[in-house]
Amino acid sequence: MSDGRAIAKGALFAPLRHPSFRRLVIGRTTTQLANAMAPVLLAFAVLDLTGSAVMLGLVVGARSIANVLLVLFGGLLADRLPRAVILQGASVGAALAQAGVAAGLLLDLSSMTLLVLLSVINGALSAVSLPATSALIPQVAPEGMLRGSNAVMRMGANLGVITGASLGGLLASALGSGWGMALNALVFLGAAVAYQGVRVPPAPGDAAPPPRARPLRELREGWTEFTSRAWVWVVVCQFFVVNAVMSGGIQVLGPAIADDTFGRTAWGLVLATQMAGAFVGGFLVARSRSRHMLRIGVAVVALDALPLIALAEAAPVALLMAAMFVNGMAIEQFGVAWDLSLQENVPQDRLARVYSYDILGSLLALPVGEMVAGPLAEQYGTRATLLGGVALTTAATAAALCSRQVRSLTVRGAGAETPVAAGGPGTGTETEKVAGKPGALPESTP
User: Cα separations (Å) of 320 from 251, 269, 273?
Assistant: First the structure.
């Protein structure tokens, strides 16, 4: 039975009946919960220790740098080693790092050097685990439920982020950063326990010994997979622009506008509304029976412009919240479409490396947007900068839709089939070449 029919009959959470997938969802949701708690607790820990926003930026920046430098290595590992084991090890490592921070804070032994070091370790572990998480989904998703599995996975992750950010602030206020970090370590351990129960069905050739490691060659293979499909690198380029614009507009200019107008509490509600929209969007995309999911997902990215327009025009908070809610729904529509498109079209043994190049593009975009938004706002004004971001987002989306492969790619919706062999540059897969439609899979019944 296809995803669309299963979900139409009310079986939205049917994939959770399968033990390995359920454990993966629990593990990823718990990991996202812990990851959302960590920066809130760390921010208060640094401010308690130094009282300096500059020092806080140093600690957070060290984590981001480690993330960027090691994410390609994470993709390489995830294509060579069991992905569930990588996730379990990363969770245990994160728990130990957070326990180290907690011990330092509770025993008054913390220093900036220690906090920066442990932040780098956490960034490295996150880089290793990110590609493995996404690449593991098609290996454990129940047959015939890949679309619904991606939707359920992302809904759990969004729920973890919403809960974790709130819980981090509550723990820092009620118990202090030290005990909050100690509980954060326990949450990471809980994720490791969940990942231990993930079992991946054996694939042909698993019994054969792995080939000798050639890191540079394997990274080149991943790059070839990444560049040989125009729809992949076109969308990543689109999102480099969109992520840079949104990180500058929402993460930098948004709080500044909130401070001068409607206040920090209302801004927190605005951000929560975006995540609530993403959660609702998960229900909607899971019920979708569209086979041109990527085309739709890429197109609705234009809705990212709505909150930027609302901020630029000093819209009422209620209107800004509505814009962020719609933005969250659009994010989820694209996210499921993107994951499903990659998982159905990239060979399993190279999928994590392709994800790592995708993640690298996103990570590089964030500091670009965050660093240029402030100077541009000072030079040209906040309104002009935000409306410039609207223009860039719209232009990047329109340019991505000019790609025939982006417009014509279809999803099978038939479950976690093994992806077909990779084709040549710009042609997608061998199946696509037979069909004579670059970037499009053959027609299938939804």
Answer: 15, 10, 10
